[in-house]
Amino acid sequence: MAKVQDVLAALESIAPTRYAFGFDKVGLQVGDPNQNVERAVVSLDRSLGAVAFAAEAKAQLLVAHHPLIFRPLDTVDTRSHEGRTVVELIRNGTSFVAAHTNWDSARGGINDTLADLLELSDVTDFGHAAEVNSLKLVFFVPAHAADSVIDAVSGAGGGVIGAYARCAFANPGTGTFDAGASTNPAIGAAGERTQVDEVRVEMLVPSAKAGAVTRALVKAHPYEEPAYDLHVLRGNPEQPAGRVGSLAAPTTLAALLETVGAKLGVRAWAWGDADRRIRRVAVVGGAADGEWVAAQRAGADVLVTGEVKQHVALEAAESGFALIAAGHYQTEHPGCATLRDRLAKALPEVDWRLFTPAPGQHGRPL
Ligand SMILES: [Zn+2]
User: Fold this and answer.
1) Could you tell me the pTM of the whole model?
2) Which residues have beta carbons under 5 A from ligand 1 (an ion)?
């Protein structure tokens, strides 16, 4: 039988946590990784409605796009909405997992679903992305032992570049040391000065694996006191969240507004010239109006998002760009249906349900 941790493992391949933005909180927020899961519910929101739906369905797990615990809670009690939700989940024996900006960004996620719904082609990525924090490990080792230390570092998670493993660069040089009277050097003798043909090896290391990698290095290295450095590298952008793609035929902003409204089942709002020619459309579901500058730079003629603040709308429109607000719920709920389908494919032994609130209820507008 699947457990909560199996769902987390499946999610890690569908929506890797490293895609989540720095401010975000994703993964298991309430519950037990060892809990058995026969039935699970996917929902846009961590609403009390979704929690009740999961309990009525006798589901052991609720997976929501929007996190439940975003800031540290001072107390867990029924006087706050978050506290009530946590208490209800625990009373019902339901574990809770969030897949938020990692699922916005992931291939086939919230924003790819939105691009598909709007029938965009030639879709590329743009905009905000998580940063990959990595380190450069540099170590010095006698030439004959270099391969075995590289193996050890690689085995602990170092030296990965894309689909390539055990990536390392080595160049030769001369190491020298005075071994103290109390030492037991692998080469040379205590109390003597020694020169050794060594190689300097460089390998990339993800920040999260620095501890495991340095422990493996020290264990595999022949020296009593291996010399190594960890250099902090500037963060690299991960998978961006936004998508930009082409319409089958150019249209106007007014016509696109109608199309978006019809496809997403919403009365959408637009800012910009009604007859503005639209060919490339950027999409970022939810509250992503701040992405308009990146969308414009990416060659889009308009950004379709969920929510648009007034000052952002006027800045964009007065900067020769256009915005469409199609609702937070309407731009993101379709991607939750996709997540349910993906999880059902990955873990078919679990009965996966989708929570679709009634209009006007639990975060869905009338
Ligand atoms: Zn959202």
Assistant:
1) 0.83
2) 286, 332
